Amino acid sequence: MLDDRKLEVLRAIVTDYVASREPVGSKALVERHQLGVSPATVRNDMAVLEEEGYIAQPHTSAGRIPTDKGYRLFVDRLATIKPLSPAERRAINAFMAGALDIDDLVARTVRLLAQLTHQVAVVQYPTTQRTTIAHAELVQLVPGRFMVMVVSSTGRVDQQVVELPGLSSEATATATGKLREAVVGRTAADAASRLARALDEVEPSTRAEITPLFAVALELLGAEPVAQVLVAGVPNLAGHSFASGLRPLLEALEEQVVLLRLLDEAGTDDVTVRIGAENTAEGFQSTSLVAAGYSVGHDHTASLGVVGPTRMDYPSTIASVRAVARYVSRILSEG
Predict the structure, then answer these.
(1) DSSP strand E in 143-235: where?
(2) Which one of 64, 170, 243, 302 is CB 3.0 to 4.6 Å from 286, fit for a cystine?
(3) Could you read off the pLDDT of 92-125 as tens digits, one per residue?
(4) Burial of residue 305 (number of CB atoms within 10 Å: 0-12, 13-18, 19+)
(5) Chain CA centroid to CA 57, Å
(6) Range(s) of the domain holding residue 172
(7) Using one digit for the tens of pLDDT, what is the confidence trace for 203-262?
(8) CATH of the domain at 25
(9) How many helices (H) and strands (E) does the chain have?
(10) Which ranges carry the HTH deoR-type domain (predicted)?
(11) Residues 165 and 30 in one domain
């Protein structure tokens, strides 16, 4: 067990190395931080930290750098997370509040996270298993031309125009009523099943008229993305070195299945930090992931986060990820 002074020395090493990218020496620590002890004492503490595997010496006559174990202890012992400034919160709120639908919201979220953290941002679409249909509508644009519209509880709007020159007003009213009754408040899968059964309940003569409309509605119910992940900020990796090289990481960032596994392993309602080898997803063993879940109401819906080098500003990154996840949850719940 490390005493408080050694933990403070480790904190100072992590802070200085993240800021400078240069190995940290005992003299520099004493000059920059109010440690209250001599450089000799700091060197002794650093020797203990190195022996315990929390820091390492990259080459002879150099200072020390944190190891994955050191970063892990640093994150676990964070007493406070750096709060976002009022200006940062206002900027997030303004940026996110302008979202038009779920696609726009996810796109804005991934761009915002990349800008705030200067890392690679990954955002998962809300999972369709928890998404329900909030509204369904059949709109006559002009005689013989109709728009079928399906709106999910996440705000996603899917719509398609269909040409039906001979559709009667009676058949239109029947189709609208059956459509809403079958799908509103249900998941897409349940809605599709009920919509197919609802068609069987219609008189044969009317059924023939509205079948094309129901076919379009069924197509729209299957249109919502399933377990899709958006990525932004890949250029932020430039200038960083990774133990396994940059190419495996870039290839992994292009694989939806790998990204989903990464987020599924880490994403919870609160912030989760995975460092180095703690990330078991292929291609990410030399990176750190800071992730959080977002939700609609009280149900965890999907996850978002950032990926970057283990040498990252953890307090600021954690604060940014947590704040953005909460904003997304609030927007989805209010929508």
Answers:
(1) 145-152, 157-163, 229-232
(2) 243
(3) 888 887 787 788 888 999 999 999 999 999 998 8
(4) buried
(5) 35
(6) 132-222
(7) 888 888 888 888 888 888 876 555 588 999 999 998 787 877 788 889 889 888 788 888
(8) 1.10.10.10
(9) 12, 10
(10) 15-62
(11) no
